């Protein structure tokens, strides 16, 4: 008795590598799209060529984008190298200048003679502007600067008229050019710009012309002339009132700026106006005082300054030998001390 083997009940096996059955393989290739390849072994050469071209295009675009990224990175690296090279060149130039000055034996900056004083106004201006502690050390710090200004850190300047005159001539006074106030004619022009007054002036001209035409020049000018006179009177009175008020505000501002402070002159404390302070004066500072001029700290106890009016920073700055520079217009927020005006 022979037993015949039956095939399995499942669907027939299709080998994807070997392709479909011989009867339907080519039919499936012809029915799909140009890139529809179910089997690579029996695929046509045309379809394989299309897949190869597509792969080359994709790889080329990726390679092109990668090349652009590399170029940008190279440009960025080149910019960073250029900046670093410039910084190193500037540092080398400063070091060379410093070494050259030391080799030439110039331990202190050149001091041009300024009449009776060994330091000039230009050098003091640079010192106040740059706040350079190293330059102050080259001058001999505060004690050396006081010697150059011919003043005593304990007793101050002499304070006589001859000494004050020499200091004002050499370094100038503690004032600044103020903007001139507006003249009376400016207020007169502004009063004239009022729209109501302009309409009244037009009405006055029209009334004057109509009256002269109808009644004659002897009696026809009364109405128009009266209106014009009233308008001119209002303009003059308004301008004069505004000008007088402006002068009063200017006087109040002058009184506000004219602060009285104590200075040490000839070993005594004298109260003077801040406009009378000269270079070389020694001033005591307390909480709430305004720094009347640029200077350096001689001594201080927990001295702190509010520099927000000058720098815009609300942070309180502590002043000591490491940070001795004071700016005019600042307020003493804490502590006390003495300063040398420069």
TrEMBL record:
Domain Cation-transporting P-type ATPase N-terminal span(s) in chain numbering: 138-212
Biased composition (Basic and acidic residues): 19-30
Pfam families attached to this UniProt entry: CaATP_NAI (PF12515), Cation_ATPase_N (PF00690), E1-E2_ATPase (PF00122)
This protein's record includes keyword Metal-binding: no
Compartments in which it is found: Endomembrane system
Listed InterPro entries: ATPase_P-typ_cation-transptr_N, ATPase_P-typ_TM_dom_sf, ATPase_P-typ_transduc_dom_A_sf, ATPase_P-type_domA, Ca_ATPase_N_dom
UniProt keyword annotation of Signal present: no
Membrane spanning residue stretches: 187-212, 224-243
Membrane topology designation: Multi-pass membrane protein
Protein's recorded name: Cation-transporting P-type ATPase N-terminal domain-containing protein
Lineage: Eukaryota, Viridiplantae, Streptophyta, Embryophyta, Tracheophyta
């Amino acid at each position: 008795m022979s037993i015949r083997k039956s095939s399995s009940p499942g669907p027939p096996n299709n080998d994807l590598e070997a392709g479909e059955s011989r009867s339907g393989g080519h039919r499936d290739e012809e029915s799909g799209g140009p890139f529809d390849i179910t089997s690579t072994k029996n695929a046509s050469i045309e379809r394989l060529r299309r897949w190869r071209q597509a792969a080359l295009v994709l790889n080329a675009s990726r390679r092109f984008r990668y090349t652009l990224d590399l170029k940008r990175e190279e440009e960025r690296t080149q910019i960073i190298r250029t900046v670093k090279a410039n910084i190193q060149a500037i540092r080398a130039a400063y070091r060379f200048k410093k070494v050259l000055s030391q080799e030439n034996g110039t331990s202190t900056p050149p001091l041009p003679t300024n009449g009776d004083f060994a330091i000039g106004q230009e050098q003091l201006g640079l010192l106040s502007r740059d706040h350079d502690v190293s330059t102050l050390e080259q001058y001999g710090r505060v004690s050396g600067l006081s010697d150059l200004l011919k003043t005593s850190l304990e007793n101050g300047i002499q304070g006589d008229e001859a000494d004050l005159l020499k200091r004002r001539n050499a370094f100038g006074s503690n004032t600044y050019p103020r903007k001139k106030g507006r003249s009376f004619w400016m207020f007169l022009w502004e009063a004239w710009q009022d729209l109501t007054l302009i309409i009244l002036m037009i009405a006055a001209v029209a009334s004057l012309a109509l009256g002269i035409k109808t009644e004659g020049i002897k009696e026809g000018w009364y109405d128009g002339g009266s209106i014009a006179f009233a308008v001119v009177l209002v303009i003059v009175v308004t301008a004069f009132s505004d000008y007088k008020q402006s002068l009063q505000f200017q006087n109040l501002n002058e009184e506000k700026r004219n602060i009285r402070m104590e200075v040490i002159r000839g070993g005594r404390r004298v109260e003077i106006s801040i406009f009378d302070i000269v270079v070389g004066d020694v001033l005591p500072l307390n909480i709430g005082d305004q720094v009347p001029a640029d200077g350096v700290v001689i001594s201080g106890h927990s001295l702190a300054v509010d520099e927000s009016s000058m720098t815009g920073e609300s942070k309180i700055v502590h002043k000591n030998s490491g940070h001795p520079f004071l700016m005019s217009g600042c307020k003493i927020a804490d502590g006390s001390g003495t300063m040398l005006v420069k």
